[in-house]
Amino acid sequence: MSSNVEEPTEIRARVLLVEDDHEMSRFLCELLSEEGYAVDVVYDGTSALERFKITSFDLIVTDLMMPRMKGTELIGRLKEVDPNVPVLLITAFGTIESAVEAMRAGAYNYLTKPFRSDEILLSIGRALEERNLRKELQRLRAEVHGRYEFHNIVGKSEKMQRLFEMISRIGDLATNVLLFGESGTGKELVARAVHYNSSRCRAPFIPVNCAAIPETLLESELFGYLRGAFTDAKRDRKGLFQEATGGTLFLDEIGEMPLSLQAKLLRVIEDKEVRPLGASRGEKVDVRILAATNRELEQGVGEGRFRQDLFYRLNVIHITLPPLRERIEDIPLLAEHFIQKFSQAARRKVTGITEEALAALIRYRWPGNVRELEHTIERAVLLGKEGPITPEDLSPRLLEGAGNDALVDEALSRRYTLRDIEREYIKRVLETTGGNKTEAAIILGVDRTTLYRKLEEAKTKE
What we know:
- The chain has 462 residues and is an alpha/beta fold.
- The protein contains 20 helices and 19 strands.
- It has three domains: 2-141, Rossmann fold (3-Layer(aba) Sandwich); 153-322, Rossmann fold, CATH 3.40.50.300; 326-461, Helicase, Ruva Protein, domain 3, CATH 1.10.8.60.
- Helix 14 crosses helix 19 and helix 19 (437-444) packs across helix 20 (448-461).
- The longest helix is centred in the N-terminal third of the chain and has 32 residues, at 117-148.
- The radius of gyration is 31 Å and the shape is extended.
- The mean pLDDT is 85.
């Protein structure tokens, strides 16, 4: 059995009241309606679950002792449908044991009858306020991710924003793309982003590492073979070009491909046709090629290790991925991204990172780029203490290497004075903190007054 109360003109929130005592349910319904809440009333847990599955509620108020289902069981069932809904539990049988049971079940608060009107209204108000704050936090996180994440690539720096724009522009082009970047900069992530941002997104994306497969196997992997083409060819096998038809083939470390295979790859690109080993004729394929390298292919062309005609075929659009040391303002965002990723996977309560640990990450040179940062955060989450990541949770190697800042190399090459180095470092730290001077002062190890004075001195010098 259930009943509905006429909704107020301006609804503060929608509340589901679960109370088998009709007198108490009438009292609470009138009280909440007068305060501007829209109230639905049911008299048992089963009815509450049915109503909750078809109607959206901001808050649940439920009795503890009810027929067919206890309030604590109802809380668990409600949380399976919506883990974020706040539940206020009320009971006339208040004990420490029942209170502990209620909180363990996931209740926001626990009130013992008889309670005052202002007491339950205050508890409801606080529960809704916390729910609204959580929803706002989720909204802001989604906004940040939407703005600074592109197909799992994270970055707010100007270089990364330009990269995102380039990916959006070239997605639907049919041309081949050559990605250049140091190891760990995310070349495969960018290749996937290009594929999934294109009309080919419903077709396969097939990656192959040209450096990881022996030359004798790479040809059959790429082009396939017919039964009897060689000793172990006991059945026909499609090559990766055939598997990827309609989609994208990602050739990672293309610079490691043997010259003999480069000629065959060039023929496939020009003819759009692949001939499996042992076949007498070719088969048409529709494949977009994205290639990647961490070596300068122009140098390989000059040294005769890479075919010039193939280089021009692959290098129709050239994208260079910046190393992490050139976009240090992305480090806090990347760190937060990886903390959330690994803490959720490991079910550990790692709540962020301290300013001191973040400063160490910013000072480090990151020769392994984003991949190294990802592994560093994963290690800290799995082996460190719960709570925020501290310098003690980072590897000693990283802390020792934090002194080898890329800024020092830049300063030497440009013949900076000590004052120049100080000014440049303050500028970069402020860029990293998004202009937050309090946060910048903590990273720099000075008070805000000193930071303001140094900024004024820098303006004077300009």
